[in-house]
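Thread: assembly with ligand

MN 10:42: here's the input set. Chains plus the small molecule as SMILES. Want everything predicted jointly, not piecewise.
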Amino acid sequence: MGRELLAGWGRTAPTAADVCRPASDADAVAALAGAPARGAVARGLGRSYGDAAQNAGGTVISTARLEGLTWVDEAAGVVRAAGGASLAGVMALLSPHGRALCVVPGTRHVTVGGAVAADVHGKNHPADGSFARHVVELTLATPGGLRHLTPAGNPDLFWATAGGMGLTGVVVDATLSTMAVETEAVRVVSRRAGDLDEVMAAMDAEAGRHRYAVAWLDGLAKGRATGRGVVGWGDHAGAGDLPPAWQAEPSRRSVAVPPWLAGLRVPGPAVAALNQVRYHRSRAADTTTVEPLDRFLFPLDAVDGWNRLYGPAGFVQYQFVVPFAAGDVVRTALERLRDAGCPPFLAVLKRMGAADPGPLSFPMPGWTLALDFPTATAGLAGVLDALDEVVAGAGGRVYLAKDARLRPELVGAMYPAVDRWREVQRDVDPAGVLTSDLGRRLGLVRPRAGAG
Amino acid sequence: MNDAHGSPQTVVVFGGSSEIALAVLSRLAARRTRTVVLAGRNPAALEAAAGALREAGVTSVEAVVFEALETDGHAALVDDIFDRHGDVDLVLMAFGELGDQATLEDNPPAAARLARVNYVASVSIGLAVAARLRAQGHGNLVALSSVAAERPRRSNFVYGSSKAGMDAFFRGLGDALRGSGARVVVVRPGFVRTRMTAGMAEAPFATTPEAVADGVVRALETGAETVWVPPRLRWVMTVLRHLPAPLFRKLGDG
Ligand SMILES: Cc1cc2nc3c(=O)[nH]c(=O)nc-3n(C[C@H](O)[C@H](O)[C@H](O)COP(=O)(O)OP(=O)(O)OC[C@H]3O[C@@H](n4cnc5c(N)ncnc54)[C@H](O)[C@@H]3O)c2cc1C
Ligand SMILES: NC(=O)c1ccc[n+]([C@@H]2O[C@H](COP(=O)([O-])OP(=O)(O)OC[C@H]3O[C@@H](n4cnc5c(N)ncnc54)[C@H](OP(=O)(O)O)[C@@H]3O)[C@@H](O)[C@H]2O)c1
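BT 11:07: finished. Tokens for the full assembly:
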């Protein structure tokens, strides 16, 4: 076990912790039992953007060695994956059997434990809900030992763990139900829309007709073009949808950001130009294509280490969801950011459906907007603080898996059931072993006395 | 904890009645700072500062006794503060004494005392703080140095040399803390209009405590290791540093 400097995907606020890598469920329990005064938290592949998988001055339990995959019921497509297994690995096991994961985030480089802890959602949230909906059973290492949890048998702890950001224990394995797919391809319909109203109207009109839907917005567009973008809808392709020349191509190799480029910061005008090209390359009329599943689901995975392009100060992602009735908050956000001189480099809009019961689970019915900014953008901290108020006032919330900056005072307004979550958390961890930088910053958990 | 923008929740100030420190704290209170410890030697001044901070939204303000000259007690003082407050996200080193050069030249004991306040106490507090930041795995230490640290001048070299010592110390400490999660920011203001400089003739590029505060907050956001206030002093001093001595003497004290 040694001290390592750890940061999230956004590379902001790095802190140092003693990292251990248990190789078994029992080791994971032992790591919790032997945690120092500053406690312990799990870490998967570090794809959360902020400080959720960090624990300054304490222990970080890396799940890198908890990787096993086994079929529970091959015919029914039920698989058990260790907490440190990556979704990429699970998908590779499933695909030869004509199966796929029901819910995946925008990158396949996350662990099963991380997907549970953030209760991640995909581009199909209205159709399929979030990750925990497809978890049949969990094994959780807690300070008191191993617990086997099912949604029906242990609803309180199960749903406190789904979305609980690692603060109820270490997920050492999860049993997942999967879906049958005929091909490894997606039939994609895309169309560009000239402003935000047009984007949202198109997504509303097509709601329920496709499994996947996502809009990319040109965050640097100004004036009447504010919020213009390209909307894409997707459905798993049947064998008959594939063009004659189609081959189930092996998943595309990714390219890495070369080290010399990683030190530089990509300047705003270059991003604006790329956005322009992306927008104008798309057509105003419906365009139908067939794409490999992974390229459609994980476009950003094509470039390894793209997060380094934001330079040493890193970047912040701000993702919120507001009820459909408060959809105007999406416009307010884009306009305020533009007026403050803080346009997002990347902006992604999705619709969400019914919420899971997890008190800290992010999704709820409504619009979710995710925005990326270089951290050091002057004035950004203040505008985001102001947007938090707007979002909370509209009955919405920000996503903790992306968060690196929320004001703790707003957690209760955004997650009204947080006190119920705290009760369950204290029951499973009465001594206050489980803690993280995020947990301390937002006051989700109370650090142990003398844990300075 | 510090957030992505380097905004601290808990701040400890050594030199808790410093005008520059209070300007920094009022900026930080508008963001995330809710707990402040003011360490200083003048209880009345600290209480006045505490009142202003409470009004600015800081929910917990504590004053503790700190005398820079009593270096033997510094480690215990630092440990006590950290033990009682858990995470300390930012430590601001704001104590210092300017002195009057002419008077100090005639009074070697007083000059040595000033050097002990500005330099020696920075070492004893700085090392004790660094040990705690290293243990907690995070935290920023902001040290108020001065442009006077950059090149000794005839008119204030007793103060300047003491600041040069503390400046060098904190830069080295920053290097020592690399990889520990803790970070050091060295701030070099020019002439700042505070009680320290009250009644003195203003130097070029004179500035305000608020401008220093903005520079500090920005450095916490960007991760800068040295800050000049105003920023163009960096370039001015780069030139001055390389001037031949006779010319520098003429400019500096003409
Ligand atoms: C390019 C990109 C796109 C993304 N798109 C989406 C998206 O579309 N939808 C979405 O929901 N999210 C998305 N995310 C966020 C990502 O899915 C989540 O942050 C996820 O939690 C990351 O998993 P990880 O294994 O990297 O976990 P880490 O980042 O290492 O940890 C995240 C949290 O999970 C906890 N944790 C990790 N492993 C365990 C375990 N075994 N047991 C208990 N707790 C654990 C940690 O303590 C921490 O709180 C995206 C991230 C990136 C980088
Ligand atoms: N003002 C400028 O032009 C300028 C320029 C560059 C750098 N600086 C530096 O910035 C820092 C803050 O200065 P300021 O302008 O804010 O002046 P200030 O208001 O006079 O602050 C100086 C602080 O140092 C404290 N102090 C002095 N001697 C001490 C001792 N022996 N023990 C404990 N505390 C002691 C003072 O406490 P009391 O209230 O008890 O006296 C006061 O809190 C200083 O380090 C200074 O050198 C100032």
